[in-house]
Every structure is written in C-alpha cells, then in structure tokens.
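Protein modeling request. Please complete all fields; requests missing the sequence field cannot be processed.
Requester role: graduate student
Desired output: 3D structure, token encoding
Chains: 1
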Amino acid sequence: MSHIATIQFTKAGKMYDFDAGSLELAKGDYVVVETERGVGVGQLVKPPVEKEAVATASLTLVKRKATVEDMATVERIFLKEQEAYRFCVNRIIERSMPMKLVKVEYQFDSSKAVFFFTADGRVDFRDLVKDLAHSFHTRIEMRQIGVRDEAKMTGGIGICGRELCCSSFLREFQPVSVKMAKEQNLALNPNKISGQCGRLLCCLDYEYETYCCLRKNFPKSGKRVRTVNAVGVVDKVNILTGNITLKLDDNKIIVIKRDEILGDGAPVAAPTAATVPTVPRAPQQTRERRPEQRRKQEKTSLESYTQAESAAKAAPAPPARQENTTVTTPTDTPKTGQPRKKHRSRKHGNRKQSGTTTDSGTPTPSSGV
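Delivered output (369 residues):
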C-alpha cells in the first residue's frame, strides 16, 4: 500500500498527486518535491490516503518536508521575482513592445525564470530575452497566457464584492455561454454579466442546472393557461418566487402562483367582422353562354350570305347591249352575284366611286347583290 498526498503549488491552482512514502504529513504542510520543471515547494491540500501500489507506481516520491531554510529560500525567491518583474516592465516600455507582463515565477533552485505575459498577437521578444538573460544570468522562458489566466494570477474583487472565484477556489475554467444568462432571466448587459477578465462571469454556470430543472414545472412564456377565475397568456415567470404573470384578454395583468393553474386555456376566437350585404353576382352560366351566342350569330350571318349568293346565281342574265355601246374593260365590269373585292393595296384617297361614267359617257353599273 502507498500513501498518496495531494499537493498544490499556487493558491487555487491545479492539484497533483505524489507518493508520500513513510512521511507523516498533515493538511497545510509544505513539502519539497521534484516536478517536470524542476524542484518546487508545494502545500498539502489533502492528507495522505492509502491506495494500492499498482495504481500509484508512476507517481513521484516526496523528497522531504519543508524546513525553515526552505521557507527562507522561498522568501528570497519572492523578492527576486518582484525585482525581475520591474526590470522586465521597464524594458518593455523602452522597446514599445505590444505586450503586457503579468507575473514572474522563479524555480526553487533559481535555475529558470518564467515570464507570463498577454498580447493580442505574436510578439518578437528575442531582444528582450537577451536583456533578461544578461541581467539575471539564468534561463529565461516567455509564456503567453489568456485573459482568464491573467485574472487568476492577478486576483481582485468581483462585482459581487467578493474575491474572484478563479483566484480563490476555482481550479479549472468551465465554458460559459449567453444561453446560461438567458435561462436565468438576466439582463444581457455586457457590463453586468462580464467579469474582470472581460469574459462572461464564471458564476453563471453555478445555478444553470438548477434553473433548467425548475423551469420544467413552469409554463413557457406565451402559453395560454386557465385558472379558476381567469384565462390568459403567460407574460413572465419568476422561478425563485414561483410567481407567474398573466396577461388577460382585456390586457389586464395579474400575478398567480404555479398551483393555481388548472390547465391549458382555450384559444382566443378570431373577432368576427360586421356582415356587409354583398351584391349577388351574375350566375356563371351566362358567361359560358356568351361564346355560344356569338357562334350562333356568326352562323346565321353566314347562312344569309350563302342564300343571297345562290339567289343571285339563279337570277336570269341581263339582256345583251347594242353594238354601238362602248365595251368596258373586264376590270370595270363587276361580276354579278359576287361581292366586290377590296384592294388593300389602294390608298383611301384613290378608291373609285361606284356609278362613275366612262370615257364614252356611259355610267358603270354599281356592284351589289
């Protein structure tokens, strides 16, 4: 069996498991351990717990419990971090570099210094690293972080008046969306739902599941419900107090409790418009008979025309004219029994009039049936 101890290196930071071995440790003790970055001093968060050795075979062994000399070294390292922070800020201002220094961390053995900074994009800090290495004579590491990590390292007071959650007890960041604020009926004002980091408040995630569970027992906004005394549409729902605001058909507003709802209300009947006397339309049959009447008229006119033409053919031929009469040209003499054809090529002003005289003075007979 192995004794597993949980250690953190910064306040509200990530927790790591180490093998305590035979050391007698209690919650809150400081220990010296070997990490991937080097030797460090951490604080015990949970007392050692016995676990199977197979599951803890890959854990690192705790070196020793921190002594007075180790804690004095930690104090000296803290002073060196402040000095390195001021020196780096001055160099950034002199070079006008688009970056913001957040924090400086030294390893326990002063073998490496890590500079945490924020920037909108990529930054060329090669000259800055040369200045830092020449001044402090140690390994320099520049690490870019986000705005949430910046707030966690810097700390501060939130809009609620308490210390920031990320710097006090929140060890890992959870994704937060605007949907959480809508579910809790909060005003979508960026100044009210944003934290010190400029992102949405982490506390919006704390009560989101509770609101979702409670909302299942309440009707949705816009639904029509029925009570003992009235029927209306749900306007607002207050999950914490259990009050429901109804808007009645006469635009009156009332507040009821969840238990007063009996069921769904009947839909509102559409208002009936005043009946206006309408003029009766003509039956559709009259419209259908119009083409038939036109066809009959065309048919009767065609029959009368054919009858007139047959009567003209059956009439006796006119008597022959004397020899001394002038002979008219075939174009001038119209055919009996046939209507005169219209010449479309002629203009209106050149049309010959019927009954005009020829050169010899004899009048030309007019056409017609």
